[in-house]
Amino acid sequence: MSRTELARAQRVVVKVGTSLLTPIGDGVHSRRFASFAKQIAAEMRGRRAIVLVASGAVGLGTRRLGLAERPRSIPGKQAAAAVGQIDLCHRFERAFARQGLLVGQMLLDHAGFADRERFLNARHTLQQLLADGVVPLINENDSVATEELRFGDNDQLAAQVVNTCGADLLILLTDIDGLHDRDPREPDALRISEVDEVTPRLLAIAGGEGSAHSTGGMRSKLLAARTASRFGVPTVIADGRAPRILRKILAGEDVGTLVHAAEDSLSSRKHWIAFTLKPRGMLSLDAGAVRALREKQASLLPAGVTAVSGRFGVGDLVACLTPDGEEVARGLVSYDARDLERIKGQRTNGIAKVLGYSNGDEVIHRDNLIVL
């Protein structure tokens, strides 16, 4: 999708970063809540469906609790999120009410995406909200999740929402005008207008995390764009402080950085397997198995497995590694870790002899396998 073709996008996920709403040392930018509501309302009047993923709950809660910095402990972050989520939703509710729109809040976590039934339920809820002309306001459920902010930040959450709601464009708004060829604070740094593929080199240029009040940096945004790309969806990373930024992006103007969609996009289910689930273990493969996966799109057979690590059951996600330790694929296994340890290196006709039963010839069937 070229810049000019962005105007065709009908369902858009817009992620607004913490740095835009609660920047460090600058209080809460109440006018930005109003600005984003106005811009989104204008696009919705043009018959676009917009899903809003908003960061800032932990940042708002940190301020409401009178803390000098973002909490470091999980309970501290959860408490700040519990306070801040109410504030965040209330501010957007008032801003959209002025535009004659209702807001429906959805608090999601990784478990809700990893469970296929809950994933589909979230999809149906989003579809209904959009059909009713309501603005879905999505944030991660930081107040009850137990892992270290599950997705890591709302950039990754926004990329998952792209798959959940069937969006055809992801917009990540931050406090910088896109990816640059070096540190953007350097005077000769140049903005990169378009990216065909998110490579290790680009991730290295992007650097590390964000600020003390947010978790996402440019690297996180590129990783989110890569996730959306495999679903066949382009991403624009742009400066949310710029006037009418959504209109400029959707009019095809050269603003921010456009990350193109991958040509070999995945189906919704395979995208869910590849980017939503978390691996529960690892399988080391021999060179022949790696070639079969990469070149023939074959299933993984037990003969190609050289080592098994982790504790996982039937149907869990595992990562598949080359002899050099590079992740080449991931998929849903047909055997648990204990039984795989027993049949690794075996020919398929030896599975039943070793285990006394068979779940099929494949350790991972190609329908449940994604080559990375």
- What is the helical fraction, as a range of percent? 25-40%
Task: Give the CATH H-level superfamily of the largest domain.
Answer: Acetylglutamate kinase-like
Cα gyration radius (Å): 22 Å
DSSP strand content: 15-25%
Mind describing the biggest β-sheet?
8 strands, mixed
Topology of this structure?
Blueprint lengths: L10 E6 L1 H4 L8 H16 L3 E6 L2 H8 L9 H24 L5 E6 L1 H5 L1 H16 L3 E6 L13 H12 L3 E6 L19 E2 L4 H7 L11 H13 L4 E5 L5 H6 L6 E3 L8 H8 L5 E5 L1 H10 L8 E6 L6 E5 L5 E6 L4 H7 L7 H5 L13 E3 L1
Parallel strand pairs: 1-2, 1-5, 2-4, 3-4, 5-7, 6-8, 9-11
Antiparallel strand pairs: 7-8, 9-10, 11-12, 12-13
Task: Tell me what you see in this structure.
With 372 residues, the protein is an alpha/beta fold. It has 14 helices and 13 strands. The protein has an 8-stranded mixed β-sheet with strand order 3-4-2-1-5-7-8-6, with helices on both faces. The chain has a 5-stranded mixed β-sheet with strand order 10-9-11-12-13, sandwiched between helices. A hairpin with a 5-residue loop joins β11 and β12. α3 packs across α4 and α7 packs parallel to α9. The radius of gyration is 22 Å and the shape is globular. About 2% of the residues have low confidence.
Gist of the model:
The protein is an alpha/beta fold.
Task: Provide the descriptors you would attach to this structure in a database record.
372 residues; 17% strand; 13 strands; globular; Carbamate kinase
